[in-house]
Design goal:
The chain is mainly alpha-helical. Helix content is 61%, strand content 4%. It is built from 15 helices and five strands. The chain has a three-stranded antiparallel beta sheet with strand order 3-4-5, with no helix packed on it. Strands 1-2 form a two-stranded antiparallel sheet. Helix 1 packs parallel to helix 14, helix 2 runs parallel beside helix 4 and helix 13 runs parallel beside helix 15.
Length: 448
């Protein structure tokens, strides 16, 4: 079978991304064009806010309807042409009604993510909006036992969300086992909790600790990749001779002959994923504490000068840091050797595509991450690249055939060497020795 040309590999990669895009489009279809005016949608949001507080229907279902109506309200306000002040008031009230339900839901169910989503909805407002009187204007909301207020402004609700999320993050265990907040707080306070140093340094120390934990697994994965690359010339010869199912059988026989498991590299990679998710959750619970930390250009004065493009602290999203993260991912992909040199171009295109995809998710806020976590991820990429470059420069012994029989045993290997009396000596697996001389037997006595 001939190897795919670079053009074919590029087309295959494009087709893969097209399938992913179509899958996302099918899972998240575009909502139908909204015909109701914005005032009617806002009126329904007020009704749903009251229904959630009253508990007359399933609270989870009501919250989903609130989120859907909020999306329709934003869409309609973007297409309507009318009084700018009225549209701004409707949008801020819609944000307050929606965030109020999310925060109440989070407090009721001790759901940190729900409270954070409500906080982000209010925190994401443009600076020019937060400076207008409408930001401090109270709006009517339905009271609950946990949140008895009947009138609240966007500014006050944002402060309440911050307080509730910060308190819940301190007392929530990651997976019910790991005190994530306390772990990050220990690393920060280890250097005195200095705003311009300790928070960024904690991200670096955490990256070193995590890399030390996964070092043996990653090393095993890299060495497996090197072993696989040693087999590629032999696999190429098989592809030139066989096709289809016969080729697959021959390749599997080749793996068996050299004692290599083609899936051995997947295990170490999969085992690292839970650790990645756990660290993300730890830093997410510490997100509001990270707002005290700064890093180089990430500080309040630079943020004000760039109109919010630069994050004011390590608890917010910083676009410059996201660009650096994307470049570090691309560099890691290009510098890390691949197990199959014949598909190197395709594999690297895939790696670059994934790096760009994740960067866009964080850029748009679909995957919200604090700047501290992005900084940790950059440090991790640098350490991972250094380890891979080192692993691919270590001496690797040549592959040796292993004669494996169908039962899973090993065929005996015989070696012949000269004996002391000039006759040959045969050793089989070191189990017994034959000198080549006949064994003398004593004659049996005859019976009388």
């Amino acid at each position: 079978m001939s190897q795919p040309t670079p053009k074919q590999s590029f087309i295959q990669t494009l087709l893969l991304f097209a399938v992913i895009y179509l899958g996302i489009s099918l899972m998240c279809p575009k909502p139908p064009e909204e015909t109701r005016p914005s005032e009617e949608i806002l009126s329904n949001l007020r009704k749903l806010n009251g229904e959630y507080a009253a508990g007359t229907r399933d609270k989870g279902e009501v919250m989903q309807q609130v989120l859907q109506e909020h999306g329709r309200l934003v869409q309609k306000l973007g297409s309507e042409s009318g009084n700018e002040a009225i549209e701004l008031a409707r949008r801020v009230e819609g944000d307050v009604l929606t965030a109020d339900v999310q925060i109440k839901h989070g407090i009721l169910h001790k759901d940190f993510n729900a409270i954070t989503m409500g906080y982000q909805m209010l925190h994401g407002q443009a600076p020019e909006v937060t400076k207008k009187p409408i930001w401090n204007q109270p709006f009517k909301v339905a009271p609950t036992k946990e949140s008895p207020a009947t009138m609240i402004s966007a500014a006050a609700l944002k402060e309440e969300a911050f307080k509730q999320a910060h308190e819940l993050g301190q007392h929530t265990l990651v997976w019910g086992l790991i005190p994530g907040y306390q772990l990050i707080d220990f690393l920060v306070r280890m250097t005195g909790a200095i705003p311009a140093f300790s928070y960024g340094f904690a991200a670096f120390v955490l990256a070193v600790i995590v890399r030390a934990i996964v070092w043996p697994l990653a090393q095993k994965q890299y060495m497996w990749g090197r072993q696989m690359s040693q087999l590629q010339p032999l696999i190429k010869d098989l592809k030139d001779k066989y096709t289809g199912q016969e080729l697959n059988l021959k390749v599997m026989e080749l793996y068996k002959e050299y004692g290599i498991n083609p899936m051995a590299g997947c295990g170490p990679a999969l085992l690292q994923m839970p650790l990645f998710i756990a660290i993300y959750q730890c830093m997410l619970y510490y997100k509001f504490e990270f707002q005290k930390g700064t890093f180089l250009w990430i500080n309040p004065s630079t943020s004000a000068a760039t109109n919010g493009f630069v994050a004011p602290n390590l608890g917010e999203r910083d676009y410059i840091l996201l660009v650096i993260y994307g470049l570090s991912m691309i560099a890691t992909t290009l510098l890390t050797p691949v197990a199959d040199p014949s598909n190197a171009r395709q594999q690297r295109l895939m790696g670059v595509g994934i790096a760009v995809f994740f960067t866009l998710l964080m850029f748009t806020g679909i995957f919200p991450v604090p700047a501290a976590f992005v900084l940790y991820w950059i440090f991790t990429n640098i350490l991972a690249t250094a380890q891979s470059l080192r692993a691919y420069r270590l001496p690797l012994p040549p592959l040796e055939k292993k004669n494996v029989v169908s039962t899973g045993g090993v065929l005996p290997v015989t070696k012949t060497q000269p004996g002391a009396n000039g006759k040959s000596t045969t050793i089989s697996n070191g189990a017994f020795k034959n000198t080549g001389a006949p064994k003398l037997h004593k004659p049996k006595k005859k019976r009388r």
